[in-house]
Design a protein that fits this description.
With 532 residues, this protein is α/β, with parallel strands linked by helices. It folds into 4 domains: 29-187, ANL, N-terminal domain (Rossmann fold, 3-Layer(aba) Sandwich), CATH 3.40.50; 200-345, ANL, N-terminal domain (Rossmann fold); 350-425, Luciferase, domain 3 (Roll); 433-530, GMP Synthetase, Chain A, domain 3, CATH 3.30.300.30. The chain is built from 15 helices and 26 strands. The strands form 7 sheets. Strands 11-12-13-14-15 form a 5-stranded mixed sheet, with helices on one face. Strands 16, 17, 19, 20 and 21 form a 5-stranded antiparallel sheet that branches.
Protein backbone atom coordinates (compact mmCIF):
# COMPACT_ATOMS: atom_id res chain seq x y z
CA UNK A 1 0.00 0.00 0.00
CA UNK A 2 1.28 3.50 -0.86
CA UNK A 3 2.33 5.67 2.05
CA UNK A 4 1.19 9.23 1.55
CA UNK A 5 2.02 12.15 3.84
CA UNK A 6 -1.55 12.69 4.95
CA UNK A 7 -1.85 9.01 5.91
CA UNK A 8 1.01 9.36 8.38
CA UNK A 9 -1.06 11.95 10.25
CA UNK A 10 -4.39 10.12 9.85
CA UNK A 11 -2.93 7.07 11.54
CA UNK A 12 -2.11 9.13 14.61
CA UNK A 13 -5.59 10.71 14.56
CA UNK A 14 -7.12 7.24 14.73
CA UNK A 15 -4.95 6.27 17.71
CA UNK A 16 -5.12 9.51 19.73
CA UNK A 17 -7.96 11.76 18.43
CA UNK A 18 -8.20 13.77 21.67
CA UNK A 19 -4.49 14.49 22.00
CA UNK A 20 -3.30 18.00 21.20
CA UNK A 21 -1.63 18.14 17.78
CA UNK A 22 -0.92 21.86 17.31
CA UNK A 23 -0.49 24.74 19.76
CA UNK A 24 -0.45 28.40 18.73
CA UNK A 25 -0.78 31.11 21.37
CA UNK A 26 -3.87 30.03 23.33
CA UNK A 27 -5.30 28.02 20.42
CA UNK A 28 -5.05 24.24 20.42
CA UNK A 29 -6.13 21.74 17.76
CA UNK A 30 -6.46 18.04 18.51
CA UNK A 31 -5.57 15.24 16.11
CA UNK A 32 -9.26 14.50 15.70
CA UNK A 33 -10.07 18.12 14.81
CA UNK A 34 -7.13 18.28 12.42
CA UNK A 35 -8.24 15.09 10.69
CA UNK A 36 -11.89 16.03 10.39
CA UNK A 37 -11.21 19.59 9.25
CA UNK A 38 -8.75 18.51 6.56
CA UNK A 39 -11.15 15.78 5.36
CA UNK A 40 -13.96 18.34 5.00
CA UNK A 41 -11.70 20.66 3.02
CA UNK A 42 -10.63 17.80 0.74
CA UNK A 43 -14.25 16.84 0.02
CA UNK A 44 -15.04 20.49 -0.75
CA UNK A 45 -12.07 20.86 -3.13
CA UNK A 46 -12.97 17.68 -4.97
CA UNK A 47 -16.58 18.76 -5.38
CA UNK A 48 -15.30 22.12 -6.68
CA UNK A 49 -13.50 20.30 -9.47
CA UNK A 50 -9.99 19.78 -8.13
CA UNK A 51 -8.39 16.68 -9.61
CA UNK A 52 -5.22 14.67 -9.13
CA UNK A 53 -2.14 16.81 -9.74
CA UNK A 54 -3.90 20.18 -9.60
CA UNK A 55 -1.94 22.85 -7.82
CA UNK A 56 -3.54 24.66 -4.89
CA UNK A 57 -1.75 27.67 -3.40
CA UNK A 58 -2.29 28.83 0.15
CA UNK A 59 -1.76 32.36 1.44
CA UNK A 60 -2.20 31.94 5.16
CA UNK A 61 -0.02 32.97 8.13
CA UNK A 62 1.63 30.14 10.06
CA UNK A 63 -1.34 28.93 12.13
CA UNK A 64 -3.21 25.66 12.85
CA UNK A 65 -5.56 26.58 9.98
CA UNK A 66 -2.59 26.62 7.59
CA UNK A 67 -1.51 23.10 8.68
CA UNK A 68 -5.07 21.85 8.28
CA UNK A 69 -5.18 23.40 4.80
CA UNK A 70 -1.96 21.66 3.75
CA UNK A 71 -3.38 18.28 4.74
CA UNK A 72 -6.72 19.02 3.07
CA UNK A 73 -4.98 19.84 -0.21
CA UNK A 74 -3.03 16.58 -0.08
CA UNK A 75 -6.20 14.62 0.70
CA UNK A 76 -7.79 16.06 -2.45
CA UNK A 77 -4.89 14.46 -4.42
CA UNK A 78 -3.58 17.95 -5.15
CA UNK A 79 -0.18 19.62 -4.87
CA UNK A 80 0.20 22.45 -2.36
CA UNK A 81 2.20 25.59 -3.09
CA UNK A 82 2.95 27.85 -0.08
CA UNK A 83 2.82 31.61 -0.70
CA UNK A 84 4.80 33.83 1.66
CA UNK A 85 2.36 36.31 3.19
CA UNK A 86 5.22 38.80 3.71
CA UNK A 87 6.41 38.75 0.08
CA UNK A 88 5.47 41.62 -2.26
CA UNK A 89 2.68 40.94 -4.75
CA UNK A 90 4.88 41.03 -7.91
CA UNK A 91 6.93 38.11 -6.64
CA UNK A 92 3.85 36.07 -5.72
CA UNK A 93 2.35 36.81 -9.13
CA UNK A 94 5.32 35.10 -10.76
CA UNK A 95 4.81 32.02 -8.60
CA UNK A 96 1.07 31.88 -9.29
CA UNK A 97 1.55 32.33 -13.02
CA UNK A 98 4.19 29.59 -13.04
CA UNK A 99 2.14 26.95 -11.20
CA UNK A 100 -1.35 27.91 -12.52
CA UNK A 101 -3.29 26.87 -9.41
CA UNK A 102 -6.93 25.78 -9.44
CA UNK A 103 -7.44 27.53 -6.08
CA UNK A 104 -5.75 29.99 -3.77
CA UNK A 105 -6.85 29.29 -0.21
CA UNK A 106 -6.34 32.32 2.01
CA UNK A 107 -6.81 33.57 5.54
CA UNK A 108 -5.53 36.26 7.89
CA UNK A 109 -4.59 39.83 7.01
CA UNK A 110 -4.21 39.20 3.27
CA UNK A 111 -7.29 40.83 1.65
CA UNK A 112 -5.31 43.70 0.10
CA UNK A 113 -2.68 41.26 -1.16
CA UNK A 114 -5.36 39.09 -2.76
CA UNK A 115 -6.81 42.14 -4.44
CA UNK A 116 -3.44 42.89 -6.01
CA UNK A 117 -2.94 39.29 -7.08
CA UNK A 118 -6.41 39.06 -8.64
CA UNK A 119 -6.21 42.40 -10.47
CA UNK A 120 -5.07 40.52 -13.58
CA UNK A 121 -8.10 39.30 -15.57
CA UNK A 122 -6.49 36.08 -16.83
CA UNK A 123 -5.38 35.17 -13.30
CA UNK A 124 -8.85 35.97 -11.98
CA UNK A 125 -10.52 33.70 -14.55
CA UNK A 126 -8.20 30.75 -14.00
CA UNK A 127 -7.98 30.74 -10.20
CA UNK A 128 -10.74 30.56 -7.59
CA UNK A 129 -10.35 31.87 -4.04
CA UNK A 130 -11.18 29.92 -0.91
CA UNK A 131 -11.32 31.71 2.46
CA UNK A 132 -10.68 29.97 5.76
CA UNK A 133 -10.15 33.11 7.82
CA UNK A 134 -12.71 34.64 10.15
CA UNK A 135 -15.88 35.99 8.57
CA UNK A 136 -16.66 36.48 4.89
CA UNK A 137 -14.09 37.68 2.40
CA UNK A 138 -14.59 39.84 -0.64
CA UNK A 139 -12.27 42.33 -2.26
CA UNK A 140 -12.49 44.66 -5.23
CA UNK A 141 -11.11 41.98 -7.55
CA UNK A 142 -12.37 38.74 -6.03
CA UNK A 143 -15.14 37.02 -4.16
CA UNK A 144 -14.41 33.85 -2.23
CA UNK A 145 -15.86 30.67 -3.73
CA UNK A 146 -16.15 29.24 -0.22
CA UNK A 147 -15.56 30.29 3.39
CA UNK A 148 -14.62 28.41 6.54
CA UNK A 149 -18.28 28.17 7.48
CA UNK A 150 -18.97 26.18 4.31
CA UNK A 151 -16.66 23.39 5.49
CA UNK A 152 -19.25 22.32 8.04
CA UNK A 153 -21.51 21.16 5.22
CA UNK A 154 -19.02 18.56 4.01
CA UNK A 155 -18.27 15.04 5.20
CA UNK A 156 -15.51 14.45 7.73
CA UNK A 157 -15.04 10.88 6.50
CA UNK A 158 -11.72 9.71 5.11
CA UNK A 159 -11.26 9.76 1.36
CA UNK A 160 -9.91 7.30 -1.17
CA UNK A 161 -6.70 8.60 -2.66
CA UNK A 162 -5.57 8.36 -6.26
CA UNK A 163 -2.09 9.66 -5.60
CA UNK A 164 0.99 7.48 -5.34
CA UNK A 165 4.23 8.06 -3.43
CA UNK A 166 5.97 9.18 -6.63
CA UNK A 167 3.44 11.99 -7.16
CA UNK A 168 4.23 15.56 -6.16
CA UNK A 169 3.19 16.63 -2.67
CA UNK A 170 4.28 20.25 -2.91
CA UNK A 171 6.23 22.77 -4.96
CA UNK A 172 8.58 25.11 -3.12
CA UNK A 173 9.70 28.20 -5.01
CA UNK A 174 13.27 29.35 -4.39
CA UNK A 175 15.22 32.33 -5.65
CA UNK A 176 16.10 32.27 -9.36
CA UNK A 177 19.05 34.11 -10.94
CA UNK A 178 16.94 35.40 -13.85
CA UNK A 179 14.44 37.06 -11.54
CA UNK A 180 11.87 34.28 -11.88
CA UNK A 181 11.58 31.97 -8.83
CA UNK A 182 12.33 28.28 -9.45
CA UNK A 183 9.72 25.73 -8.40
CA UNK A 184 11.27 22.65 -6.75
CA UNK A 185 8.91 19.66 -7.03
CA UNK A 186 8.93 17.42 -3.94
CA UNK A 187 7.16 14.05 -3.89
CA UNK A 188 5.46 12.17 -1.07
CA UNK A 189 8.28 9.59 -1.19
CA UNK A 190 10.95 12.29 -0.94
CA UNK A 191 9.53 13.59 2.33
CA UNK A 192 8.59 10.20 3.80
CA UNK A 193 12.10 8.85 3.24
CA UNK A 194 13.58 11.67 5.30
CA UNK A 195 10.86 11.51 7.97
CA UNK A 196 11.38 7.75 8.41
CA UNK A 197 15.10 8.31 8.97
CA UNK A 198 14.70 11.38 11.22
CA UNK A 199 11.98 9.94 13.47
CA UNK A 200 14.10 6.82 13.94
CA UNK A 201 17.38 8.66 14.50
CA UNK A 202 15.99 11.29 16.89
CA UNK A 203 13.54 8.90 18.56
CA UNK A 204 10.52 11.19 18.12
CA UNK A 205 7.66 10.08 20.37
CA UNK A 206 4.09 11.18 21.28
CA UNK A 207 5.33 12.92 24.44
CA UNK A 208 7.52 15.29 22.40
CA UNK A 209 6.81 19.01 22.11
CA UNK A 210 8.45 20.29 18.95
CA UNK A 211 9.04 23.81 17.65
CA UNK A 212 7.67 25.09 14.34
CA UNK A 213 9.94 28.05 13.73
CA UNK A 214 10.64 28.31 9.94
CA UNK A 215 7.97 29.85 7.69
CA UNK A 216 5.77 27.44 5.75
CA UNK A 217 7.28 28.35 2.37
CA UNK A 218 10.69 27.25 3.69
CA UNK A 219 11.48 23.52 3.33
CA UNK A 220 12.66 23.12 6.94
CA UNK A 221 9.02 23.49 8.02
CA UNK A 222 8.27 20.21 6.21
CA UNK A 223 10.27 18.34 8.85
CA UNK A 224 8.55 20.21 11.67
CA UNK A 225 5.09 19.32 10.39
CA UNK A 226 5.43 15.69 9.33
CA UNK A 227 8.12 14.68 11.81
CA UNK A 228 5.86 15.86 14.63
CA UNK A 229 2.40 14.88 13.43
CA UNK A 230 3.41 11.46 12.10
CA UNK A 231 4.73 10.67 15.59
CA UNK A 232 1.65 11.79 17.51
CA UNK A 233 3.64 14.61 19.17
CA UNK A 234 2.73 18.28 19.70
CA UNK A 235 3.70 20.96 17.19
CA UNK A 236 4.26 24.33 18.89
CA UNK A 237 4.08 27.15 16.33
CA UNK A 238 6.58 29.90 17.13
CA UNK A 239 4.86 33.28 16.62
CA UNK A 240 6.65 35.26 13.90
CA UNK A 241 6.76 38.39 16.05
CA UNK A 242 9.21 36.67 18.43
CA UNK A 243 11.95 36.43 15.80
CA UNK A 244 13.46 39.79 16.73
CA UNK A 245 12.95 39.33 20.46
CA UNK A 246 15.59 36.88 21.79
CA UNK A 247 14.37 37.11 25.40
CA UNK A 248 10.87 36.12 24.27
CA UNK A 249 12.18 33.28 22.11
CA UNK A 250 14.01 31.87 25.12
CA UNK A 251 10.86 32.26 27.23
CA UNK A 252 8.87 30.46 24.53
CA UNK A 253 11.19 27.43 24.63
CA UNK A 254 11.08 27.46 28.43
CA UNK A 255 7.34 27.94 28.94
CA UNK A 256 6.30 25.57 26.13
CA UNK A 257 8.56 22.90 27.66
CA UNK A 258 9.86 22.08 24.21
CA UNK A 259 11.79 18.84 23.77
CA UNK A 260 13.09 19.75 20.29
CA UNK A 261 14.14 23.04 18.70
CA UNK A 262 14.87 23.28 14.96
CA UNK A 263 15.79 26.49 13.15
CA UNK A 264 18.37 28.20 10.99
CA UNK A 265 21.60 29.07 12.87
CA UNK A 266 21.12 32.84 12.61
CA UNK A 267 18.33 32.60 15.20
CA UNK A 268 20.60 30.70 17.60
CA UNK A 269 23.44 33.15 16.92
CA UNK A 270 21.11 36.05 17.66
CA UNK A 271 20.06 34.50 20.97
CA UNK A 272 23.69 33.80 21.90
CA UNK A 273 24.71 37.43 21.25
CA UNK A 274 21.84 38.57 23.47
CA UNK A 275 22.98 36.11 26.18
CA UNK A 276 19.43 34.94 26.92
CA UNK A 277 20.22 31.26 27.61
CA UNK A 278 21.02 30.46 31.25
CA UNK A 279 23.17 27.62 32.56
CA UNK A 280 21.08 24.40 32.53
CA UNK A 281 18.21 26.33 30.94
CA UNK A 282 15.33 24.61 29.12
CA UNK A 283 15.30 21.44 31.29
CA UNK A 284 12.77 19.73 29.00
CA UNK A 285 14.86 20.28 25.85
CA UNK A 286 16.42 17.06 24.58
CA UNK A 287 17.79 18.06 21.17
CA UNK A 288 18.65 21.19 19.25
CA UNK A 289 18.93 20.99 15.46
CA UNK A 290 19.98 23.51 12.83
CA UNK A 291 20.07 23.58 9.06
CA UNK A 292 20.20 26.03 6.17
CA UNK A 293 23.57 27.70 6.74
CA UNK A 294 26.78 27.45 8.75
CA UNK A 295 26.46 27.77 12.54
CA UNK A 296 29.68 29.56 13.64
CA UNK A 297 31.59 27.61 16.26
CA UNK A 298 31.74 30.41 18.93
CA UNK A 299 27.94 30.64 19.38
CA UNK A 300 27.71 26.82 19.22
CA UNK A 301 30.16 26.66 22.14
CA UNK A 302 28.03 29.28 23.93
CA UNK A 303 24.94 27.04 23.61
CA UNK A 304 26.67 23.75 24.42
CA UNK A 305 28.30 25.13 27.57
CA UNK A 306 24.93 26.28 28.87
CA UNK A 307 22.93 23.19 27.88
CA UNK A 308 25.08 20.13 28.65
CA UNK A 309 21.96 17.92 28.74
CA UNK A 310 21.01 18.65 25.09
CA UNK A 311 22.03 16.76 21.92
CA UNK A 312 23.22 19.17 19.20
CA UNK A 313 22.88 18.12 15.55
CA UNK A 314 23.91 19.86 12.34
CA UNK A 315 21.73 18.99 9.33
CA UNK A 316 22.70 19.84 5.77
CA UNK A 317 20.82 19.77 2.47
CA UNK A 318 19.36 21.95 -0.28
CA UNK A 319 15.65 22.15 -1.09
CA UNK A 320 16.27 19.99 -4.19
CA UNK A 321 17.28 17.08 -1.95
CA UNK A 322 14.35 17.42 0.51
CA UNK A 323 14.96 18.99 3.92
CA UNK A 324 18.39 17.48 4.69
CA UNK A 325 20.76 14.89 3.25
CA UNK A 326 23.41 14.63 5.96
CA UNK A 327 23.78 14.98 9.69
CA UNK A 328 26.41 15.39 12.37
CA UNK A 329 25.68 15.20 16.08
CA UNK A 330 28.41 17.13 17.89
CA UNK A 331 29.88 14.63 20.39
CA UNK A 332 31.22 17.22 22.83
CA UNK A 333 31.62 20.96 23.20
CA UNK A 334 34.38 22.11 20.81
CA UNK A 335 37.60 23.04 22.62
CA UNK A 336 38.60 25.69 20.09
CA UNK A 337 36.50 28.46 18.52
CA UNK A 338 38.29 27.76 15.23
CA UNK A 339 37.19 24.09 15.11
CA UNK A 340 35.18 23.38 11.97
CA UNK A 341 31.92 21.48 12.42
CA UNK A 342 31.40 18.96 9.59
CA UNK A 343 28.12 18.42 7.77
CA UNK A 344 28.87 14.81 8.53
CA UNK A 345 27.41 11.61 7.17
CA UNK A 346 24.65 10.96 4.65
CA UNK A 347 21.17 10.15 5.95
CA UNK A 348 19.77 6.72 5.11
CA UNK A 349 19.21 6.26 1.38
CA UNK A 350 21.35 9.29 0.47
CA UNK A 351 24.95 9.82 -0.54
CA UNK A 352 27.23 12.88 -0.52
CA UNK A 353 29.86 12.80 -3.27
CA UNK A 354 32.74 15.25 -3.81
CA UNK A 355 33.69 15.38 -7.51
CA UNK A 356 35.99 17.32 -9.81
CA UNK A 357 34.96 19.13 -13.00
CA UNK A 358 34.98 15.81 -14.93
CA UNK A 359 32.60 14.26 -12.36
CA UNK A 360 35.31 12.01 -10.94
CA UNK A 361 35.84 11.63 -7.18
CA UNK A 362 38.54 13.89 -5.73
CA UNK A 363 41.14 12.42 -3.34
CA UNK A 364 40.41 12.63 0.36
CA UNK A 365 41.20 16.07 1.73
CA UNK A 366 41.00 17.88 -1.61
CA UNK A 367 38.30 20.42 -2.43
CA UNK A 368 35.66 19.61 -5.03
CA UNK A 369 32.05 20.20 -5.98
CA UNK A 370 29.48 18.60 -3.68
CA UNK A 371 26.84 16.39 -5.27
CA UNK A 372 23.97 14.49 -3.67
CA UNK A 373 22.29 11.28 -4.81
CA UNK A 374 19.57 9.08 -3.38
CA UNK A 375 15.97 8.99 -2.21
CA UNK A 376 15.66 12.69 -1.40
CA UNK A 377 16.31 14.03 -4.90
CA UNK A 378 13.50 16.09 -6.38
CA UNK A 379 12.18 15.07 -9.82
CA UNK A 380 13.32 18.56 -10.87
CA UNK A 381 12.07 22.10 -11.40
CA UNK A 382 8.44 22.73 -12.23
CA UNK A 383 7.99 22.85 -16.02
CA UNK A 384 11.64 23.76 -16.58
CA UNK A 385 13.51 20.86 -18.23
CA UNK A 386 16.47 23.09 -19.10
CA UNK A 387 17.23 24.06 -15.50
CA UNK A 388 16.45 20.51 -14.36
CA UNK A 389 18.93 19.06 -16.86
CA UNK A 390 21.64 21.51 -15.78
CA UNK A 391 21.34 20.71 -12.06
CA UNK A 392 20.31 17.03 -12.02
CA UNK A 393 22.95 14.97 -13.84
CA UNK A 394 23.62 11.34 -14.65
CA UNK A 395 26.89 9.92 -13.41
CA UNK A 396 29.16 9.22 -16.41
CA UNK A 397 28.96 5.65 -17.65
CA UNK A 398 25.61 4.92 -15.97
CA UNK A 399 22.01 4.86 -17.14
CA UNK A 400 20.25 3.74 -13.97
CA UNK A 401 17.99 6.53 -12.59
CA UNK A 402 19.35 5.63 -9.16
CA UNK A 403 22.69 7.07 -10.30
CA UNK A 404 21.18 10.52 -10.80
CA UNK A 405 23.07 13.24 -8.90
CA UNK A 406 22.28 16.84 -7.96
CA UNK A 407 24.92 19.56 -8.17
CA UNK A 408 24.51 21.58 -4.98
CA UNK A 409 26.77 24.47 -6.01
CA UNK A 410 28.63 23.98 -2.72
CA UNK A 411 32.31 23.24 -2.29
CA UNK A 412 33.33 20.48 0.11
CA UNK A 413 36.04 18.02 1.09
CA UNK A 414 36.13 14.65 2.82
CA UNK A 415 38.28 14.78 5.94
CA UNK A 416 40.62 12.12 7.31
CA UNK A 417 37.78 11.18 9.66
CA UNK A 418 35.64 10.26 6.63
CA UNK A 419 33.22 13.09 7.34
CA UNK A 420 32.18 15.71 4.79
CA UNK A 421 33.11 19.36 5.43
CA UNK A 422 31.26 22.27 3.79
CA UNK A 423 33.57 25.00 2.44
CA UNK A 424 31.17 27.58 0.95
CA UNK A 425 29.38 28.40 -2.28
CA UNK A 426 30.92 28.02 -5.73
CA UNK A 427 28.60 30.54 -7.42
CA UNK A 428 26.65 33.74 -6.83
CA UNK A 429 24.13 32.05 -4.58
CA UNK A 430 24.25 32.74 -0.84
CA UNK A 431 22.51 31.73 2.35
CA UNK A 432 21.33 34.56 4.59
CA UNK A 433 19.17 33.89 7.64
CA UNK A 434 18.61 30.44 6.19
CA UNK A 435 17.14 31.70 2.91
CA UNK A 436 18.79 30.65 -0.31
CA UNK A 437 19.25 33.79 -2.38
CA UNK A 438 20.44 34.23 -5.95
CA UNK A 439 22.29 37.55 -6.06
CA UNK A 440 21.42 37.72 -9.76
CA UNK A 441 17.71 37.95 -8.91
CA UNK A 442 18.36 41.09 -6.82
CA UNK A 443 20.44 42.58 -9.64
CA UNK A 444 17.71 41.82 -12.18
CA UNK A 445 15.10 43.53 -10.00
CA UNK A 446 17.35 46.53 -9.40
CA UNK A 447 18.10 46.97 -13.10
CA UNK A 448 14.39 46.81 -13.86
CA UNK A 449 13.83 49.91 -11.70
CA UNK A 450 15.83 52.03 -14.19
CA UNK A 451 17.13 54.16 -11.33
CA UNK A 452 20.84 53.41 -11.76
CA UNK A 453 23.29 53.56 -14.65
CA UNK A 454 24.78 50.26 -13.52
CA UNK A 455 24.75 48.18 -10.39
CA UNK A 456 26.17 45.02 -8.88
CA UNK A 457 25.18 42.89 -5.91
CA UNK A 458 27.81 41.09 -3.85
CA UNK A 459 27.80 39.42 -0.45
CA UNK A 460 30.32 39.49 2.37
CA UNK A 461 30.60 37.49 5.59
CA UNK A 462 29.80 39.41 8.75
CA UNK A 463 29.74 38.87 12.47
CA UNK A 464 26.06 39.83 12.51
CA UNK A 465 23.27 37.35 13.19
CA UNK A 466 22.41 37.15 9.47
CA UNK A 467 25.88 35.69 8.79
CA UNK A 468 26.10 37.20 5.30
CA UNK A 469 25.48 40.83 4.33
CA UNK A 470 24.01 41.63 0.91
CA UNK A 471 25.76 44.67 -0.55
CA UNK A 472 24.74 46.91 -3.45
CA UNK A 473 27.25 48.93 -5.49
CA UNK A 474 25.62 51.37 -7.89
CA UNK A 475 26.21 54.30 -10.21
CA UNK A 476 23.34 56.79 -9.79
CA UNK A 477 21.61 58.32 -12.76
CA UNK A 478 23.01 61.80 -13.27
CA UNK A 479 19.62 63.46 -13.61
CA UNK A 480 18.09 61.63 -10.67
CA UNK A 481 18.47 62.10 -6.92
CA UNK A 482 19.25 58.40 -6.40
CA UNK A 483 19.75 57.40 -2.76
CA UNK A 484 19.99 54.05 -0.97
CA UNK A 485 16.73 54.82 0.82
CA UNK A 486 14.91 55.36 -2.47
CA UNK A 487 16.42 52.26 -4.06
CA UNK A 488 15.62 50.11 -1.03
CA UNK A 489 12.06 51.40 -0.93
CA UNK A 490 11.55 50.62 -4.62
CA UNK A 491 13.11 47.16 -4.28
CA UNK A 492 10.90 46.34 -1.28
CA UNK A 493 7.89 46.45 -3.61
CA UNK A 494 9.20 43.55 -5.70
CA UNK A 495 11.46 41.56 -3.35
CA UNK A 496 10.93 40.13 0.16
CA UNK A 497 12.75 41.84 3.04
CA UNK A 498 15.36 39.11 3.41
CA UNK A 499 16.61 39.84 -0.15
CA UNK A 500 17.07 43.59 0.32
CA UNK A 501 20.69 44.84 0.44
CA UNK A 502 21.86 45.87 3.88
CA UNK A 503 24.83 47.91 2.67
CA UNK A 504 25.04 50.41 -0.16
CA UNK A 505 27.90 52.20 -1.89
CA UNK A 506 27.72 54.81 -4.64
CA UNK A 507 30.38 54.94 -7.39
CA UNK A 508 31.12 57.23 -10.31
CA UNK A 509 31.81 54.03 -12.24
CA UNK A 510 32.00 50.42 -11.08
CA UNK A 511 35.47 48.82 -11.11
CA UNK A 512 36.10 46.48 -14.07
CA UNK A 513 38.52 43.58 -14.56
CA UNK A 514 40.77 42.91 -17.56
CA UNK A 515 37.83 41.41 -19.47
CA UNK A 516 35.75 44.54 -18.98
CA UNK A 517 33.42 42.78 -16.54
CA UNK A 518 32.44 44.20 -13.17
CA UNK A 519 35.23 43.37 -10.72
CA UNK A 520 33.15 41.70 -7.99
CA UNK A 521 36.13 40.64 -5.83
CA UNK A 522 37.20 44.28 -5.79
CA UNK A 523 33.70 45.35 -4.73
CA UNK A 524 33.65 42.76 -1.94
CA UNK A 525 36.97 44.15 -0.74
CA UNK A 526 35.56 47.70 -0.81
CA UNK A 527 32.60 46.70 1.35
CA UNK A 528 34.81 44.72 3.76
CA UNK A 529 37.09 47.74 4.19
CA UNK A 530 34.15 50.11 4.52
CA UNK A 531 32.98 48.16 7.56
CA UNK A 532 29.65 49.91 7.99
Amino acid sequence: MSRLLQQLVSRQAEQRPDQTAIVYHQEKMTYGELEEGSNRLAHLLKEAGCAKGDRVCFLIPKTPAAIMTILGILKADCVYVPLDTSSPAPRLEKIIDACTPRFIIAGGQVISMLDQLMADEARRKGTAIGWIGDGDAQGSNFKARFTREDLNGYSSAQLDYRNDTTDAAHILFTSGSTGVPKGVVITHANVISFIDWAVGYFGTKPADKISAHPPLHFDLSTFDIYGTLSSGAQLHIVPTELNLAPQKLAAFIRESELTQWFSVPSVLNFMAKADVVKLNDFPSLERLLWCGEVFPTPPLIHWMQRLPHVKFTNLYGPTEATIASSYYSVPQCPADEHDQIPIGTACDGEELIVLDETLKPVPQGEIGDLFISGVGLSPGYWQDPEKTGAAFLQLPGTSDPADRIYKTGDLARVGEDGLVYYLGRADSQIKSRGYRIELGEIETALNALNQTEECAIVAINTAGFEGVAICCAYVPLKEEDTTPAKLRSALSKVLPNYMLPARWMSFERLPKNANGKIDRPKLREEFQNDGN
